[in-house]
Amino acid sequence: VSLVSIGNICRSPIAEAVFRKLVSDEKLEHKWRTDSAAVSDWNVGRFPDSRALSCLRNHGIETAHKARQITKEDFQTFDHILCMDESNLRDLNRKSNQVKDCKAKIELLGTYDPQKQLIIEDPYYGSEKDFETVYEQCLRCCKAFLEKYH
What we know:
- The chain has about 150 residues and is an alpha/beta fold.
- Helix content is about 40%, strand content about 10%.
- It is built from 5 helices and 4 strands.
- The chain has helices at about 10-25, 50-60, 70-75, 85-95, 130-150; strands at about 1-5, 35-40, 80-85, 105-110.
- Strand 3 (about 80-85), helix 4 (about 85-95) and strand 4 form a beta-alpha-beta unit.
């Protein structure tokens, strides 16, 4: 599963770290390849936002992720590409149309939210509380996604 947002420094690295921990807790590492990426190239090579890292640490989760841009190969190798909002979804669908043998199912991570919060808003211009909201949404969605596909 690849988790995608615009810049790969806030939402998607939180989602990746949360999903990776859920997979680890369930002892399913052998079944899942977990990654995250950006639709843009703005932050390639950068670590996640310090507020994202702080939020994850508050929940006992560490990550060594560095931002990267999604590649054509991602569409050919991942079974699922889950994104955060409609803009990401449009960009990913457009990019996938240029890829031969696209096997990835592209959808909003929020599709799996039991609380029906479809969009995971970008917390970049927000507060610590907004990062916590993203974490909680990602946790709900990733749990539901893992239950469905485990």
